[in-house]
Amino acid sequence: MAKKTTISIETDSLLIMRGRNLPRAWCPICAAESEMIALANAAVISNLDRPAIDEWLNSGELHRSQAADGFELICLNSLLARVQINKTG
What we know:
Layout (H helix, E strand, L loop, with lengths): L23 E4 L4 E7 H8 L3 H10 L4 E3 L5 E4 H13 L1
Antiparallel strand pairs: 1-2, 2-4, 3-4
């Protein structure tokens, strides 16, 4: 009788953001003040590629705003919440 072996691999990651000096702004969708990050940095924090970030932006799952200098900003609260949902489900 052949033996069956099942191997499960679980991965997890921890993001530590020290010494953050991120701009804070009101996020009307969260209805709260939130730290904002540059759109270019969202992929680094979430460990996803740009098309996935764009999909979240287009679906409204990420909250977007624009800085006075024209840079697109992402609400960090929405990004972290979405990354958590993606990780668990």
